[in-house]
What we know:
By secondary structure, the chain is α+β, with helices and mostly antiparallel strands. It has six helices and 17 strands. Strand 6, helix 2 and strand 7 (112-117) form a beta-alpha-beta unit.
Amino acid sequence: MEPLFRSGFLPDRAARLALADLLHETFGIDIRLLDRLGGPDPTAVPLAYFDAAGRCIANLTAFSLPLVVNGASLHAAGLQSGTVHPAWRGRGLYRALMTAALDHCARQGFEAVALLTDTPALYERHGFRTVPQNRFVGPAPPGASGTGKARRLDLDDTSDVGLLRALLEARQPVSRRFAPVRQTEMFLLNAIWEDGVRLGLMERENAAVAWREGPDGAFELLDVAGPAIPPLAAVLAALGLAPERVAVRFPPDRLGWEGEAVAEAGEVVLMLRGADGLPDGPFALSPMAVF
């Protein structure tokens, strides 16, 4: 029997769980965590094939990924969760899903489409191009020592989840050069999935900070969510940290601090399709927005 194509089925609990099973089997991730974090991305449109038993055997999900690039809004989409069950590979299912996803993005009027992959050659034939990413490293800003009054945010606490979601929904883009306007659900999942992530609430500034200790002992700033981005010196003061070195994983143009751009090395690359221009200067997608 030929597999059944379905799209936009997230309200169907059985189909949603079947998709979760496929992603857990192929990637080792559990998207069911979203059920306790406020639910899935309301803009997400999964495009998938199901077998006769109702098992999800292939998927590619499109979602809205509004961006700020060089200070201007870019109506962009993202593609994620692309996979085919091993037993169904080699039958053209993924190629069909890519066509369906790009057609969906075109109908919705998206100006650009982004994805992350470790197999860029697979997507170049569809018009995607790899764009380099950087981290920003340098000495900590002067005056960064402080009292450490930031409060830890706990994703096992429903009130903290609600507070963090509110900050993410009302956030100022973390950079004028390149940043997502909204990526709430992935921020929450990455806070659990990414190694060593710590979340702190700067109560006076009404901002949440995602950070961790880097492999060389440097302070690594992953993201900031709030109605205004506080300076890096204020972030370190609120966390009670006085590191010698800092690494920022997004363009630091709102932080009142400049670092040296260092090319990111890794197998997973960011690819874009349809965007006319790139940011004016080095940039990166925050690890908290990785999809």
